[in-house]
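Batch job 17 of 40 flagged for manual review because the log was empty.
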Amino acid sequence: MNQQLRNIMTSNVFTVKETQSIQEAAAIMSENNIGAVPVVNHSGQMTGIITDRDITLRSTAQGEAAQTPISEVMTAQKIVQGTPEMNVQQAAHMMAQQQIRRLPVVENGEIVGMVSLGDLAVEDQYNQQAEQTLTDISTPSSPQK
């Protein structure tokens, strides 16, 4: 029952480089039906993550052009990440605490997988954990003024 992330994570992870455009990131998301893409540098080290929400709130809503570099809208500070050895309960707790729906799995600085709430929900033994995590993530935050 103490399963590691390496056993449930998606290991075929699409990535983008910091210098690519937000339009390219959005196209990858659209083509692959995903909502987040890890951002890597030229060495393959994870430097951030860009989500569909980042594109909407940090670029489209601000009137940024589709050719804006990903580095200008990605989340780069306090990137929450797991490790392949982390157990599912730890990951779910971290996701709930940080209010995130997707957790990059990193080993030696490189992205090796991704775990989403959906990954937790399809595992029968973690379905209740996923439900509680979603409840915690969905707790409303105060609107920004």
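Reviewer: the log was empty due to a logging misconfiguration, but the result itself is present. The chain has one domain: 5-137. Unflagging and moving on to job 18.
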